[in-house]
Sequence to fold (331 residues):
Amino acid sequence: MAKRRLTQRQKERINAIQERRRQQVEARAEQALAGTEIEQACKGLVITRHGQNLAVADNTGAIFHCLSRQNIGQVVCGDRVVWQPTTKGEGVVTALLQRETALVRPNFSGEERALAANITCLVIVLAPEPTPSTYLVDQYLVAAEKIGVKILIALNKRDLLDAAAEQTFDAKFGHYPIIGYPIIRISAKYKHGLDPLIVHLQRETSVLVGQSGVGKSSLVMALLPNIDIQIGRLSESSRLGKHTTSTTTLYILPQGGKLIDSPGVRNFRLGKLTQQQLEYGFRDFNQVLGHCKFSNCSHQREPGCALIEAVKKGDIHQQRLNNFLHMAKNL
Fold:
C-alpha cells in the first residue's frame, strides 16, 4: 500500500496537537512541584522499538510496553516522549518531545530516517582488518559535525598490531588528533584494555559505528557483561521478546553512561547536504573557508583556492581534501 502523503495543513495540525501535549505535560510537572494533583501522564525514554511497539522507561527505570500513536511521527530509540499509562505495565505514547540530536541516513528511496535520537557521542570503531577507510571515517565525521556531537575514533583489536602495522596506521590517521579528533587504542583481550573507551563513554549517550568485522558486537558484549540480564528484563517488561536482540536498543553501562547498539549502523551514506554544509563538516577547513579568490570556488583547480594553498603548506592533509571532493561530487 502506498504511503499516504500528509498535506501541509495536516502537518501543521499534527505539530500543533503535539505542541499542546508537550505544554500539558510541562504544566502537570509544575503542578506536581506545587503539590497539586496531576493526571497520569509523564515523560519517558524510548529503549527500543519494533513497529508501533515501544519499550519506554519512566524516570525510575521501570519499563513499559507502549503503543505509539501514528500521527506523532517516527519514534526511534533514544527519543524522549510523553506517554499515558493504560493498563498495568502498558501505555500509549501521545507526543514526541523535541530531539537535541538525531543520527540520520537516507533509505533506498532517498528519504532521511533517524537511526537514534539524543545521542551525545559518536564512536567510530576501526580495526587492523578490514583495512580502515579514511573516506568512511570522514563521512561519519561530517555527519557528527552536522548534528554537533562529540567524536571519538577507537582503534579496536590493538593486540593484532605489530610495529609495522602501527606505523602504517599512524601514517594514515595520525593527522586526525591534530585536527581535534582523539584516537584511542583498545582491546578486549587485555586486562583493562577497554579502560580508555569506558572513560569516554561515561555520562554520554553513545553509539558505535564502523565497518562490519571491526568488533563492535564484541565490544558491546565486553562493555555490557550484564547484557543478558538487561535484555531479559527488557523482554519481560515490554513483552517485545526476541526483537530486543535484533533492533536498535539502549543499554545502561555499568560504569555510567548509555550505549545505543544498532545492528543497522554498519554502512553509512550521508543525507542531503549543501556544499556549504559539507565544507563545514570538515573541521580543519574552517580556518580558510571564505578566503578563496572566487566565491563559488569548487576547490579543485581554481587559482587562488585557499584550501589548495593550505594543503601545499601542510595545514590540511591531502587525503582530507580528496575525500571532500569525492563527497562533493555526490551531493
Summary: The radius of gyration is 22 Å. The CA atoms of residues 93 and 318 lie 49 Å apart. Residues 29-38 have pLDDT under 50 and may be disordered.
